[in-house]
Design goal:
By secondary structure, this protein is α/β, with parallel strands linked by helices. The protein is 32% helix and 21% strand. It has a seven-stranded mixed sheet with strand order 6-5-4-7-8-11-10.
């Protein structure tokens, strides 16, 4: 088999960041009638490029299959905290850059209109670009005009020819999902007005490493970025990053701010230099930092299994909360099925009645928890654990306890 090359700089990928074995596509949930059929499993092997330090997966399945076959299961609006984050972002952008009724806001990977709705409510023209037709349909029903396409140079040129260019171009949690990174960023440059601003949010590789967040590696996420690397990616397409914020979302994310290199304003924020120094201090410019991660992941797997084995040996009942992609990585990597976890629940009705890929754990409505009163509630989307603990506080009535597994096994009474 021919060796993979870096999706940014095209250097051969010869070093492993972490090998998580084989796993199904994380959002390929199963129906009851599919339980007697074979599933496709793919290598989940992350590499590190020694030239640009981009952590990445090889492309094992088409993006069309992963995102665009009409049955994509992720809808942003089912997380209250994520909606609050989106609303706060819209208010910050309006306050900081003065966007108004004469501005054009364009979001790439706009999902179900969870974010653009807040700009639209203020009378600011919006346009979403979303490849998953079933999700885009929900946005349209909210009154958010949405183009059903993957984004890149071709889509950008088509929209520009129709008179669509962005005063604010944004993409939250999409950069990692892009197999053709250079085509995507080149498209952003094309559709951005000469004095336009772009913002992009993505999980921060530094947090993934330091907080042992290996479960955020799955086939939808082709790339994992440090600021040092993402700055190079955008600079290669003549976009200058003038500011960056560290955010608590998704276990620790970055929000980068970009402009055309030729634009005089805004000036470069001191936070750019500060974050680069922080990453260099953490060793993100050194290969050895990346080569030691896999050992830590294997130790965590053993601790997770030890906890689950001990709990079951004491006849404790364990159920899950959530059916996120990260949960499917963790459960498949650790080999955890219904021998450990009876079922999981999710607020998203599009997942209820289905089964987790690979592990085939059934997904129910959250009311199921009150019915069975488990000893442990395992929070799979640990990034919103505070929201879930508040929502499910009633399990304490029967002395039920919460459990999170990342970065370490923690039982919360």
């Amino acid at each position: 088999m021919e060796k993979a090359t870096c999706r940014f700089c095209h250097k051969l990928l010869e070093h492993t960041f972490v090998d998580l074995g084989i796993s199904p596509i994380s959002n390929d949930f199963l129906r009851q009638d599919q339980l007697y059929l074979a599933e496709k499993f793919y290598p989940l092997h992350a590499y590190i490029c020694t030239n640009c330090f981009l952590v990445q997966l090889d492309e094992v399945e088409s993006p069309k299959h992963i995102f665009g076959d009409g049955d994509y299961a992720y809808f942003s609006s089912y997380s209250v905290s994520w909606l609050q984050h989106a609303q706060a972002y819209s208010e910050l952008m309006i306050q900081r850059f003065g966007f108004n009724e004469s501005s054009q806001i364009i979001e790439v990977a706009s999902n179900d209109g969870y974010l653009l709705q807040y700009f639209a409510k203020k009378g600011i023209p919006v346009l979403g670009i979303e490849p998953a037709a079933n999700v885009a349909k929900v946005a349209e029903e909210k009154g958010i005009p949405t183009v059903v396409r993957f984004f890149g140079v071709a889509t950008a040129k088509d929209l520009v020819s129709q008179g669509k260019k962005a005063d604010l171009l944004l993409g939250n949690n999409v950069l990692a999902h892009v197999p053709d990174l250079n085509d995507f960023v080149a498209g952003m440059k094309i559709i951005l007005k000469p004095d336009g601003i772009l913002t992009v949010e993505f999980p921060h590789l530094l947090q993934l490493i330091e907080q042992n967040q290996f479960d955020t590696i799955y086939h939808e996420h082709f790339s994992y970025f440090s600021f040092l690397t993402v700055e190079k990616v955008f600079a290669a397409h003549d976009i200058e990053l003038f500011d960056v914020e560290e955010l608590p979302t998704h276990g620790g994310s970055l929000r980068i701010y970009g402009k055309h290199h030729s634009a005089v304003e805004p000036v470069i924020s001191p936070r750019v230099k500060q974050l680069k120094e922080k990453e260099i201090k953490a060793g993100l410019d050194q290969l050895e930092t990346y080569l030691t991660f896999e050992k830590k992941v294997r130790e965590t797997k053993r601790k997770i299994l030890s906890f689950l084995i001990e709990a079951k040996s004491q006849n404790k009942s364990i159920v899950g909360y959530g059916a996120p992609a990260k949960g499917n990585t963790l459960l498949n990597y650790c080999g955890v099925r219904t021998d450990f976890i009876d079922y999981t629940v999710d607020r998203n009705p599009h997942k209820q009645g289905l089964f987790l890929p690979g592990t085939r754990i059934p997904i129910y409505h959250p009311d199921k928890i009150q019915e069975t009163q488990p000893d442990y509630l395992l929070i799979l989307p640990w990034n919103i654990k505070d929201e879930i603990i508040e929502q499910m506080d009633y399990i304490r009535q029967w002395k039920g306890q919460f459990v999170v597994l990342i970065p370490e096994v923690e039982v919360i009474s």
